[in-house]
Amino acid sequence: MYTLMNLILLVPLLVFLFRHILSRQRRLRKPYPPGPKGLPFIGNILMISHFNHRGLAKLSRTYGGLLHLRLGFSHLFVVSSPDIARQVLQVQDHVFSNRPTTIAIRYLTYGGSDLAFSNYGPFWRRMRKLYVMMLFSRKRAESWVSVDEQIHKSVRFVAVNVGKPLNVCKLAFSLTRDITFQAAFGSSSSTSDEVRLEEFLEIIQEFSKLFGEFNVADYVPSWLSWFDPQGINERVKKARKSLDGFIESVIDDHLHKKKGDQNIDEESDMVDQLLSFYKEEGKVNNSVTKINLDNIKGIIMDVMFGGTETVALAIEWLLTELLRSPENMKRVQNELASVVGLDRWRVDDTHLEKLTFLKCIVKETLRLHPPFPLLLHETVEDAEVTGYFIPKGSPVMVNTYALGRDPNSWSDPESFNPGRFLGPGAPDLKGNHFEFVPFGSGRRSCPGMQLGLYAFELAVAHLLHCFTWRLPDGMKSGDVDTIEGPGLTVPKATPLLAVPTTRLLCPIVS
Ligand code: HEM
User: Fold this and answer.
1) pLDDT, tens digit only, all 510 positions of the chain
2) Of 275, 285, 355, 424, which has the highest C-beta tally within 10 A?
3) Residue 301: which domain range?
4) Name one GO molecular function term (predicted).
5) Ligand 1 proximity of 404 Cβ (cutoff 6 Å)
6) Which residue ranges are tagged as binding site for heme?
7) CA 88 – CA 86 distance, rounded (Å)
8) Number of domains into which the chain is organized
9) Which DSSP category does 290 fall into?
10) Phi then psi for 484, rounded to 5 degrees?
11) Is 335 inside any structural domain?
12) Do residues 396 and 88 touch, judged by C-beta distance below 8 A?
C-alpha cells in the first residue's frame, strides 16, 4: 500500500524535476539562428526545392548570414556572410571539419571511404597525406607535364576545326578528362572518341546531381527508408554501378600490366602507386587507419571528380563571360599578344607569371561561378557562433556563391568586372578573404588547388591566345545566357557553342 502511494507521489515529482532541468538547460543554451518558421514535425521540408545555392542565398537576404532550417527532426545551417564563414572555416575550423552524409553520399562514396567525404580524424589525415603524396610527390611531377601535353593536343584539335561551331562544354571536359587520365591512370583517350566521352560525361554529371540533390528520404525516420518520392535511391544504385565498372576496369588494367612489367618504377602512375601501397598496407597495418580496397577506389573517384569537372566547368564559364563581354575579351587577347607574341602559339609558365589581366579574369570567373557553390561541412561537437547554437552532428553549408555576390563586400556584385582584382589589397585565392573562397579554406580546403589552377589558367591562356572566338551566326553577345543546371557543382544549363578562327601569324604544329 505504502509502495503504491510512494509511486503515485514520486512520478509527478520526477516529471516536474525532468521538466525543470530541461527548461533550465534550454534557458542556458543559446538560441538557434533565425530562419523561416516550419510546420510541426516536418519543419521546412515543403521548401526543399529552393534549397540550392541561389534559393539559400535569397533566404539569407531575409534571415541573415547564419540561417537555420529544420528538415523533419534534423537541422540545417547555411553560412552566407564573410564574418561567419571566417568563424566556421578558420577560427573554429576543428569543430566544423566533418562532412555530412546523405543516402546518396553514403552509397556513392563506398560508405564514406574516400577522402572528400570521410569524417575528420586520424583516418582522414592518413588519406589526405596519401592523396597529396600521390598527386604532388616528385614522381608525380608528371601530372604537371601531362597538363601541358593535353592542352597542346586540345589546341591542335581546335585548330583543325576552325570555322565550325564547337561545343565548349565537351571540349573542356575532354581536355580535363585527358589531363586527369594521363596523370592518374597513365593513359589518355583520343578526343575523337565521342562515345566514351559522352558516357564519362554522363557518369560525372549524374554523380554531381546526386551529391547535390536534397532528398526527402534523408529526413524521415530509418523505418521509412523505403520512402523515395523523388526516385533517388534507384538512380544512386545505377550511377554507382557504372562508376564501379569503370574504376574496376582501371584497377584490372593496372594489375595485368604489372604482371608482365619488370620496370614498374619507370612506368608507374598514380594507380600503380596506390596498388603497391595497398599491398604493403596489408602486411604492416592492422589499425583503424588501415586503407582498404574501397578506400583506393574512393581516392580514384575523388581524383576523377576533383580533377575533371571543376576545371572543365570553370573553362566553360570563363569563355561564356568573355563572349558576353567583348571589351574584356579584347583586353586579355591584347595582353596575350604582347606577352607571348603572335608569332608563337605555346604559352608557358614564364608567360603565365606576366599575364596579370588573365589572372584577374580567372578570379572573376571563380567569384561569379564557384565550381562548388556550397561547401558541405558538419559539426564535430556542439558549437556556438555569434551567439547562436549549432548542435553536434548538424550539416553546415558555406554558400560560396552568396559570399562571392555579397553586396557588402563587392561593388556591383552581379556584374563581370575582372578589373576589380587589379591592384594591391584585392582578394587572393589563399582562403584568407572569406568573401572569396572558391577552393574553401582551412583543413578541409582543396588539396588540388595548385594543379587545378595551373590547368585552368594554362588552358584558357592557350584557347584565347591561339584563337579568336565568336558566337554562332545570328547570335549577339547579349544572347549568351548564364542559366545554371542542377548539381553539387554548377554546370551551364545549355552548353556554350562558339566558333574559333585563326589569330596567329604562325601555324599550330606539334
Ligand atoms: C578549379 C578547380 C578546383 C576548384 C574550384 C576546387 C574547389 C574545391 C572546394 C571548394 C573544396 C571543398 C572545400 C571545403 O569543403 O571547405 C574542394 C575539396 C577537394 N578538392 Fe578541389 N577544386 C578544384 C580542383 C581540384 C583538383 C584538380 C583536385 C585533384 C586532382 C581536387 C581535389 C579535391 C579533394 C580530394 C577535395 C576534398 C578535400 C577534403 O575533404 O579533405 N580539386 N575542392
Assistant:
1) 556 556 565 666 565 555 655 555 554 679 999 999 999 989 998 998 889 999 999 999 999 999 999 998 899 999 999 999 999 999 999 999 999 988 899 889 988 889 999 999 998 998 898 888 877 664 555 667 778 889 999 999 999 999 999 999 999 999 998 888 777 777 655 444 555 677 777 888 888 889 888 888 888 777 777 778 888 888 999 998 888 888 888 888 888 875 555 444 545 778 888 888 888 876 666 677 788 888 888 888 888 888 889 999 999 999 999 999 999 999 999 999 999 999 999 999 899 999 999 999 999 999 999 999 999 999 999 999 999 999 999 999 999 999 999 999 999 999 999 999 998 889 999 999 999 999 999 999 999 898 899 999 999 999 999 999 999 988 999 999 999 998 889 999 999 999 999 999 898 877
2) 355
3) 27-502
4) monooxygenase activity
5) no
6) 446
7) 6
8) 1
9) -
10) -100, 150
11) yes
12) yes
With the most atoms of ligand 1 within 8 angstroms of its CB, the residue from 146, 429, 439 to mutate is 439
Find cell 568573401 and name the residue.
435
Ligand 1 centroid to Cα of residue 222, in Å, is 31
Ligand 1 centre and the CA of 186: distance in Å? 21
Q: Which residue bears the cell 515529482?
A: 13
Alpha-carbon gap, residue 2 to 259, rounded angstroms: 83
- Ligand 1, atom nearest to 377 Cα: 15
Q: How far is the CA of 439 from the centre of ligand 1 (A)?
A: 6
| Residue 375 in contact with ligand 1 by CB distance below 6 A | yes
Q: Which of 389-394's residues contact partners 24+ apart within 8 Å by CB, and which partners?
A: 389/29, 389/30, 389/31, 389/32, 390/32, 390/33, 390/75, 390/77, 391/75, 394/74, 394/75, 394/76, 394/77
What atom in ligand 1 is closest to the CA of residue 375? 15
**Residue 448 covered by a domain:** yes
Hey, which of 105, 137, 377, 446 would you mutate to test ligand 1's pocket, going by the most ligand atoms within 8 Å of its Cβ?
446
Nearest residue by C-alpha to atom 37 in ligand 1: 116
Does 194 reside within a domain?
Answer: yes
C-alpha 295 – ligand 1 centre gap (Å): 17
Pocket of ligand 1 contains residue 304 by CB under 6 Å: no
Q: How far is the CA of 89 from the centre of ligand 1 (A)?
A: 15
Tell me if 88 is assigned to some domain: yes
